[in-house]
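Homework help board

Subject: predicted structure for assignment chain

Our instructor gave us this sequence and asked us to write out the predicted structure in token form, then describe one feature. I got the tokens but I'm not sure how to describe them. Can anyone check?
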Amino acid sequence: MTRVLIADDQAPTRDGLRMLLTGEPGIEVIGAAVDGADLVALAERREPDVVLTDIRMPRMDGLAAIRHLMSLAPPPAVIALTTFDLDEYLFGALQAGAVGFLLKDSDPALFVDAIRAAERGQGLIDPQVTRRLVHRFAATSPRPATAELDELTAREREVLVELARGLSNAEIAGVLHIAPGTVKIHVARILAKLGLATRVQAVIYAHRHGVVTWDDA
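My token output:
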């Protein structure tokens, strides 16, 4: 079972997510937090596999909570939730270690898909805003190529390019004519060499450092 913890300061959102996920095969909702401080305390006690958390909450916001969650051993996979697809806090959440994000009015099926993807170590960003999100993040703070990029093999760089285009492991395997398991190994090595924690961070990195451009994507 994938153990899921929900955090939102609005009771209707908490209750709605709990109702959506309750009874879903392989998913167990183990608690619901009312703010970031409550989320951190619950996560320390209950050790969730996946956390769905709002960004804007009282006492401790979602960004600070995510940073705390990333210090746990092992840290849960975090999916950030927001009402606004251009929420500035969202960028910080992705840098802090969130594996993806959804709008609160996303298709209900996406919440289940995002949880299952997070449990597999993959990220999922709401398709409504993926391109705008990463483009805005990349455009606001472009950076030159780094020495770490030189450490990537030719194949790892190819995988990073396809990753930055938003392809899944299976899709990358099809494009590069290699096994999905091999793609998974390459992704893990890319993250390690670039000092990144998640696939989402790798996508942002690739765009910010000129590995791909939006003409490529």
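Reply (TA_rk): Your tokens look well-formed. For the description, you could write something like this. The domain at 2-137 is CATH 3.40.50.2300 (Rossmann fold). That's the kind of observation they're looking for.
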